[in-house]
Write a sequence for this structure.
């Protein structure tokens, strides 16, 4: 087997193990642990090391900073039970050691979406003001189809007289 084929299979195996780890951790956090400190928790991803011995689990937690900190403490408290569930689900010589990290990407995308929505609203308000003042044409911003638009350098002048 060539080295390239070996790496491809290792990559598939890593993706498969990562998918299983993500599923088990997610099911355990959401469904099996009855800890009220773990509200609005989502497993956003799992990054496995090349030797599949460690798994960095990215967790998204909605809420303020204090709620996130409390939730991360609850996850650390349940670490052993989660690790045990993952070990039971994987038929491997070594089970990846789970390391949990807060993931801010969901929060950033929500705040970016809010900024985009605010910018669009401001743009629409400015456009409505321009239309109200008569600077811009209502609708799609193009002249009406029934009105012929001037074309060429003599467009605004009277037509030449027949001689």
């Amino acid at each position: 087997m060539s080295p390239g084929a070996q790496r491809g299979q290792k990559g598939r195996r890593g993706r498969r193990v990562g998918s299983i780890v993500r599923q088990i951790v997610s099911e355990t956090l959401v469904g099996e642990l009855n800890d009220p400190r773990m509200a609005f928790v989502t497993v956003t991803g799992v990054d496995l090391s090349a030797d599949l011995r460690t798994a960095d689990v990215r967790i998204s937690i909605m809420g303020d900073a204090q709620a996130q900190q409390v939730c991360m403490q609850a996850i650390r408290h349940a670490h052993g039970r989660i690790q045990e569930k993952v070990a039971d689900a994987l038929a491997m010589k070594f089970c990846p050691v789970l390391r949990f990290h807060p993931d801010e990407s969901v929060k950033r995308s929500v705040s970016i979406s809010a900024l985009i929505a605010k910018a669009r609203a401001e743009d629409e308000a400015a456009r409505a003001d321009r239309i109200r003042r008569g600077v811009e044409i209502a609708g799609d911003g193009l002249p009406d189809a029934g009105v012929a638009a001037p074309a060429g350098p003599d467009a605004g002048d009277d037509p030449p007289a027949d001689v």
Remarks:
- The radius of gyration is 30 Å.
- The beta strands are 41-48, 54-61, 97-102.
